[in-house]
Specification:
Elements lengths: L1 E5 L4 H12 L9 H10 L1 H11 L10 E2 L1 H9 L3 H20 L6 E4 L5 E8 L2 E5 L8 H14 L3 E5 L10 H9 L4 E3 L3 H10 L9 E3 L4 H10 L4 E2 L8 E4 L6 H12 L7 E5 L2 H17 L7 E6 L3 H11 L3 E4 L4 H4 L8 E4 L5 H6 L25 E8 L2 H17 L3 H8 L6 H6 L1
Parallel strand pairs: 1-12, 5-6, 5-8, 6-7, 8-9, 10-11, 10-13, 11-12, 13-14
Antiparallel strand pairs: 2-7, 3-4, 4-15
Helix pairs in contact: 1-12, 2-3, 2-8, 3-8, 4-7, 5-6, 5-7, 6-7, 8-9, 10-11, 15-16
């Protein structure tokens, strides 16, 4: 693991130094050929690109995966894995339901009008679950269950096939558990274009959610506005905040676990002394060397001498995952304002949130927690308003509307409001 020590220079300054070090050259992504092929050839291009990039050893002949195949995968799953999926699914569903308030609220205003606000689900949504040589059934649960709780009527799952042309069986089992309506063995930018614009086989959806690589992100960026998206996910990141009482072996495990996501996953350890920094670096190095799945991720180590500085750095950095592993973590958690998800206390490893704790693991990355939140039912719902004015309310407001409309140079807006007045209507119209 690549480790670098950073001197404390204030929260924003230290954040900038760390992010500059983390920054890697983004791969050049040219989607024009894929976008053109999808627009001109539809299903033919989608199948060709699927076999070119994903099903390279056993080409697929169909895009769709039958729901029967997914149910068979669930029935044939290792009982231990199935139980784990079911426990995780129950927790994710319960947390998502707690975030959902379907009640409309009617606001009565002084002039007599009412404005009713509420939320309604989008009609259709697609969850992108990365696949290919790796599989992420946990992402299927996080995305599909949250969309289901939101009330989405048509739920689509897409996940790339492996080189053998088959979607991972645990991924399919998770889709069956979530009762996905449609499943397609597709991935990459072409999958995003298909979901946004449709093909002969695939009908467009209203929202596309779920993490992906640079190609997926760039495609989501291009179709945003044609459809809704959740966010543009970058490499997964973790910050741990320690004190002199923290079990460093646990901190090292959590940092190395996050490094399994790839060599571009940024890691930050905030420690109280040089001695703790040296010991933590040694334990991380030994563990990373012993575990082949731990990638060569960058680890920034920052020594801060008080808790206030640690919290200030965390809020400035806005990590995707923040572990508060010091003895005062319970009280400090309330001071965190930007992290995607906060894990409170030594027992609350990020791994629990990644799989089964119930919180959503689709989180804002790259510091975007300053303005984005986790995937939630709100991602798949839209705010609505209903306005109702009786005659008295129209009388009370029409003059104000007319004044504002004329000030903006839109006099007919004013006339439209004045026409609803019951008193003096003829005078206003004649004037």
């Amino acid at each position: 693991m690549r480790t670098r020590r950073f001197d404390w220079a204030g929260p924003d300054e230290t954040t900038a130094e760390i992010r500059n070090w983390f920054e890697v050259s983004a791969p050049v992504v040219d989607l024009a050929p894929i976008e053109k092929a999808m627009a001109e050839e539809g299903d033919d291009a989608l199948l060709r690109l699927t076999n070119q990039f994903d099903a390279t050893e056993v080409p697929r002949t169909e895009l769709a995966v039958s729901l029967e195949e997914a149910r068979d995968a669930l029935e044939g799953l290792d009982p231990v894995v199935r139980e784990a999926l079911e426990v995780a699914a129950a927790n994710i569903r319960q947390v998502a339901e707690a975030q959902l308030d379907e009640r409309e609220t009617e606001v009565e205003l002084p002039q007599g009008q009412t404005v009713t606000v509420g939320e309604i689900p989008v009609a259709s949504a697609a969850i992108y679950a990365p696949g290919g040589r790796a599989s992420y059934p946990s992402t299927v649960l996080m995305g599909c269950l949250t969309a289901r709780v939101a009330g989405v009527e048509r739920l689509v799952l897409v996940s790339p096939a492996g080189p053998d042309g088959i979607v991972n069986q645990t991924t399919l089992a998770a889709a069956a558990l979530c009762e996905a309506d449609e499943i397609y063995a597709i991935g990459g930018a072409q999958a995003v274009f298909a979901l946004a614009r449709g093909t002969g086989t695939i009908r467009p959806v209203d929202v596309i959610a779920g993490p992906g690589n640079s190609w997926v992100n760039e495609a989501k960026r291009r179709v945003f506005g044609e459809v809704g998206i959740d966010s543009l996910a970058g490499p997964s990141d973790l910050m741990v905040v320690l004190d002199g009482t923290t079990d460093l072996s646990l901190a090292a495990l959590d940092l190395c676990a996050q490094a399994e996501h790839g060599s571009e996953s940024p890691l930050v350890a905030v420690v109280p002394s040089e001695a703790v920094a040296v010991e933590l670096e040694a334990q991380v190095g030994d563990l990373a060397e012993a575990q082949s799945t731990v990638k060569d991720s960058p680890l920034a180590v920052v020594v801060v001498h008080d808790t206030a500085a640690a919290i200030a750095l965390a809020n400035s950095f806005a990590p995707e995952h923040l572990e508060l592993m010091d003895h005062g973590s319970a009280s400090l958690a309330g001071e965190i304002t930007t992290a995607g998800c906060v894990f409170v206390g030594e027992g609350s490893a990020t791994a629990f949130g990644d799989y089964a704790a119930g919180s959503n693991h689709v989180l804002p990355t790259g510091g975007t927690g300053r303005f984005f939140g986790p995937l939630s039912p709100g991602t798949f719902r839209r705010r609505t308003s209903k306005v109702s004015l009786d005659a008295a309310a129209a009388d009370a407001l029409a003059g104000h509307v007319d004044a504002l409309a004329r000030a903006e140079g839109l006099p007919v807006h004013g006339l439209s409001a004045l026409a609803r007045q019951t008193s003096g209507r003829d005078d206003e119209q004649n004037g």
